Amino acid sequence: MFVVVVGGGKVGYYLTRELAESGHEVVLMEKDRARAEQITDEIGSIVVAKDGCEGIYLGEAGANRADIVVAVTGDDEDNLVICQMAKHHFSVPRTIARVNNPLNEPLFRDLGVDEIISPTRMILGSIEQDIPVHELLHLAPLSRDFELIEAQLAEGSPAIGRNPRDIELPDGCAIVAVVRDQEAHGIGADTVLRPGDRVIATGRDEYEPDIRRALIGEVGGS
Amino acid sequence: MRVVIVGCGRTGAMLAELLDAAGHSVLIIDIRTGAFDRLAESFKGEAVRGDGTDEGVLRRAGAADADVILFLTEGDNRNIMGAQVARDTLRPGRSFAKVNDPVRAEAYAQLGIDTVCRTTMVADTILTAIGLPATGLPALFARPEPAAGDGARSVGTGSQPAAAQEG
Amino acid sequence: MPDRSRPIFHRAVIALTGGRVDTETVRMAVELARSSKAELVGVHVVQIDWTQPLDADIASASEEAQRVLDQAESLAERLGQRMESVLVQARAVGAALVDEAVEREADLLILGLPYRTRFGGDFALGRWILYALKNAPCAVWVVREPMPEEEEGES
What we know:
The structure holds three protein chains of three kinds. Chain B is of the alpha/beta class. Chain B has helices spanning about 10-20, 55-60, 75-90, 100-110, 120-130, and strands spanning about 1-5, 25-30, 45-50, 70, 95-100, 115, 140. Chain C has a single domain (about 10-120), classed as Rossmann fold (3-Layer(aba) Sandwich).
């Protein structure tokens, strides 16, 4: 597999080193000449000291025959453009971008980046998972503005004892499944929500407060 | 006409003043308030600080009803990203991104945004002035005209084609 | 007191650039090797850019590369010394030469440097030479060709 990595920060550096050690052909693009030389000293002549945002240089680094292009610079707009140029100008089959601002995730997806890595989202996700009740868990953005959300029902949730179809939600929101005893269930006419159920819902993110109110209840004891 | 300008550099400020003086409604956005020092006292439009590539910022600043949006920041990639955000969310009548790298300027025209390239513009002006043949590259790389029922974009999966933009 | 019986080197790797300076480096290496029966290995590195895989069929198919090896070998032979010569494909010339010297346990690396100026300005010491000077464990000699004579008659 031939991988072009753009951005020689910490992530790009370790990624390149690991890929090379596991036997893949890999080249790292780093536009800062001093940094590029430092990395060359450490991991060998697999660094191109040029800006991967420039179409010509991306070509010189072998984008024409790359299996994967990974953009891990510190700037979202650069990562987006690198992946788009790789995909549309060089027909690279697979592009992966780091997204620093989680709000840019759906945009990157819509604009054709194949895979998106969001350190911010990952850390946020792991913090949210430590909070068992009261909170909505953001499972995944489905597209711009659209989210898949999980709510774990605690005692006292206004949804308990009700059929999800009877719960009032704004148009464009839907409860799609209930996870109970490690199994997912669709919503039937006889589904009745119980404490401990994990309810999977989807909707535009502006309706999050409505979903929260319906499934978790008023937070803050008001 | 409602015009939104992202990036208050020399070009952005000049256009803002000219359009404002010509009676158009102008909103200019820059990430640094200091950039607005370029605007003359007589400028009557709005100047808002914020990241103009962010859809939320654009909306809050009042860019949703723009007829024309110009992305004129110093970074080619910021302009490219902003123009794509605007095209797919705010859907202005027209939008332009300043892209100084001719390779990217041409590539993104193919991907459905109008790009303006200062590099070819300056080179051609000088070449013409001294009587030499021009570069052969345009200053404005226009996206292909969307054919009926056929979106100009080949990018993406989730959003609607750009055909609806022409208005 | 220097030990006059000790040979200057046992095995030298000589970088073959394909330029005029090769004549200088090969001749010098041969003269020095003669008395001490040292081994000589000429290495010509063909740089492969990233648009092609490292093992692409390039160097062996290149007449130019073969010519560089042949020329060096036959010069050494005319001067009465055997010289092995090898063709190496690499991403970076300096690193390839240093690797070759290490692999062959050479105690000397000889590099020929054409006199060149960058864009007509300052004298340019190639990156690959700097790399070898910095990283080769053995001794490194750099042979710079003489400055070209001033061309006359140019207005």
